[in-house]
Amino acid sequence: xxxxxxxxxxxxxxxxxxxxPATSARxxxxxxxxxxxxxxxxxxxxxxxxxxFKHEVLAIVGDNGAGKSTLVEILxxxxxxxxxxxxxxxxxxSLASPAAARSLGVATVFQDLALCDNLDVVENLxxxxxxxxxxxxxxxxxxxxxxxxxxxxxxxxxxxxxxVASLSAGQRQAVAVARSLLGEPRIVILDEPTAALGVxxxxxxxxxxxxxxxxGHGVVLVSHNLADVQAVANRIAVLRLGRxxxxxxxxxxxxxxxxxxxxxxxxxxxxxxxxxxxSKA
Length: 281
Known about the structure:
By secondary structure, the chain is an alpha/beta fold. The protein is built from 9 helices and 12 strands. The protein has helices spanning 8-11, 68-76, 98-103, 121-125, 139-152, 169-179, 199-214, 226-232, 255-263, and strands spanning 30-39, 42-52, 56-61, 83-88, 91-93, 106-109, 132-133, 136-137, 187-191, 218-222, 235-240, 243-249. Strands 6-9-10-3-11-12 form a 6-stranded mixed β-sheet, with helices on both faces. A 4-stranded antiparallel β-sheet has the order 2-1-4-5, with no helix packed on it. It has a two-stranded antiparallel ribbon with strand order 7-8. Helix 5 crosses helix 6 (169-179).
């Protein structure tokens, strides 16, 4: 969470806020209706209603324990909701497994990256999606494609044939993000994609997110970094205690209202004196 002295508005000019596309005239590519999930007595998600449209970035923000990771796992097919419905292009679907989610065009990059340290970059990128030529692994095509994907992120690695264990944290994150581009997904879910990246690589990832939006993808960006959210998001959905507290249009974003939605604080509290009388101080 950024502090008041580091609010995104002080880091990114308002003019850079991406416009929110009109959504009323087009159906969502992905919809959640009354989605709930519990773990024993703990209700992680309660009646979640969200829409993801083509050509837009929907940011999901919230404090720790708000339910962001559970929501990501449901969309990725790693968890099954207890109730509610998920639809793609208006048709009800079951994201019963990660393979089912991928077959429906939903690609996810988890915060833990899900990389195999003992495999090289190419093997990690194409694990489960190998390319074949005449019944044999097409190593040349996979290596060429690996360099192409990494080039889109401006990632510098000594070789795509070295184990990912030898890469830096930023390079490992970039490999995981590049892997999400395989299969031309329609919906890309990024869970804290810039958390381990440097300034230059963060800028490249944000540029990639914008390119995904321009190509027609629906992008779900889960992030604690509100500056990154402001730079690329069209809409911002706030999760608090497992519920959607508020959905903001990026161009009309009020940061005081955003922080209040995240923390549950009243926006009037800061302007109220102890005796209950309003104060302009």
